[in-house]
Automatic annotation (TrEMBL):
It comes from Streptomyces griseoflavus Tu4000. SUPFAM superfamilies: ARM repeat, Putative DNA-binding domain. Transmembrane segments: none annotated. Pfam families: HEAT_2 (PF13646), MerR_1 (PF13411). This is MerR family bacterial regulatory protein. Residues 1-69 form the HTH merR-type domain. One of its GO terms (molecular function) is DNA-binding transcription factor activity. Keywords: DNA-binding. The keyword DNA-binding applies.
Length: 334
């Protein structure tokens, strides 16, 4: 078969076939009497092999090595191609993400495009100082891409930078609450904690709704942050979680402070006192937890808390009894 017919049947141009021949990839098995290249069936099969390998991303040099070495192991080459492809996809994905973020900022000109690019580069810097400066930079006419800020908040491990990023996200005015809520479902505990911390600092009402949902989260740390935030905002549904925190000794002082805020409402104060008394009498509540619960009654007004302190001042646990007696004196003003 002559080169023109091979080109038509294989889809490989005559020029490319000559290039393959110059590289030694495929050589026509014969020549016609007038000197034209003549390809055999085996030659054509080799051409199709070359084209198949090209679709996998192999260079012509790699193809030549694969076809010319009888002992060649394709598994090693395929594994290397997988690695290269993943690296290329990662680079392209990062570029696509950056372009989408620039597009979302709706830049009016190249100056704004460059500003956004500079901001994104600073957020991704290995320097903590650079990341913090980017977060604390004054807001100008170009809004910061909210999804980039959320991503930075959820991945930041440096405490000072993390605080600056949460502040920047809270003042961005562009939402981000839904993205932070997705972070609550992360398999990584540290990411879940960063997400709930950021939600606690968000000013919008949607963030409060997300925090209410987080009161039922399986992660105790997430529940705790949500309860502390909502408790100081007067959300009475946080009472059970706050009492749990006192029993478990997790941010128990902050939890007691939040209960004291909630106790400003008489009905809620009685609910708190009833819950605390119930946990005091639970057989699984250890001695240290009983002392903490007794201390928590200090700022809870109402008859239930007062009666509880009277009874606790005669408790068999001396530490509990002394604590309750001291708190009674404070309440009585004596």
């Amino acid at each position: 078969m002559l080169i023109g017919e091979v080109a038509r049947r294989s889809g490989v141009s005559a020029r490319m076939l000559r290039h393959y021949e110059s590289l030694g990839l495929v050589r026509p098995s014969g020549r016609t009497g007038t000197g034209y290249r003549e390809y055999s069936g085996e030659d054509i099969r080799r051409i199709f092999h070359i084209e198949s390998l090209r679709t996998l991303g192999l260079s012509l040099r790699e193809i030549g090595r694969a076809l010319g070495d009888p002992g060649f192991q394709p598994s090693a080459l395929v594994a290397d191609l997988i690695r290269q492809t993943r690296e290329r996809i990662a680079v392209e994905t990062e570029l696509l993400t950056r372009l989408c973020r620039i597009d979302a900022a709706e830049p009016a000109g190249w100056e704004e495009v460059l500003h956004t690019v500079s901001f994104l580069q600073a957020l991704g810097s290995k320097s903590a100082d650079a990341r913090q400066r980017a977060a604390l930079a004054p807001v100008d006419s170009v809004p910061a891409p909210v999804d980039a800020l959320v991503e930075a908040v959820l991945s930041e491990t440096e405490p000072n930078v993390a605080g600056a990023l949460r502040w920047a996200l809270a003042r961005s005015g562009g939402g981000g609450t839904a993205l932070l809520a997705e972070g609550l479902d992360s398999p990584v505990a540290a990411v879940r904690q960063r997400a709930v911390q950021a939600l606690a600092e968000m000013p919008d009402g949607e963030a409060s709704a997300r925090l209410r949902d987080a009161l039922a989260h399986p992660d105790a740390v997430v529940r705790g942050y949500a309860a502390l935030t909502l408790g100081t905002r007067g959300v009475a549904d946080t009472v059970p979680t706050l009492i749990d925190m006192i029993v478990e000794g997790r941010n128990d002082t902050d939890a007691a402070d939040a209960l004291s805020v909630l106790a400003g409402d008489i009905a809620t104060a009685e609910r708190i006192a009833t819950g605390v008394v119930g946990r005091l009498g639970h057989e699984d509540t250890g001695a240290p937890a009983r002392v903490r619960l007794t201390q928590a009654l200090a700022d809870i007004p109402g008859p239930t808390a007062s009666r509880a302190l009277v009874e606790l001042s005669h408790d068999d646990d001396r530490a509990v009894a002394l604590t309750a007696a001291y708190l009674r004196q404070l309440r009585d003003g004596s």
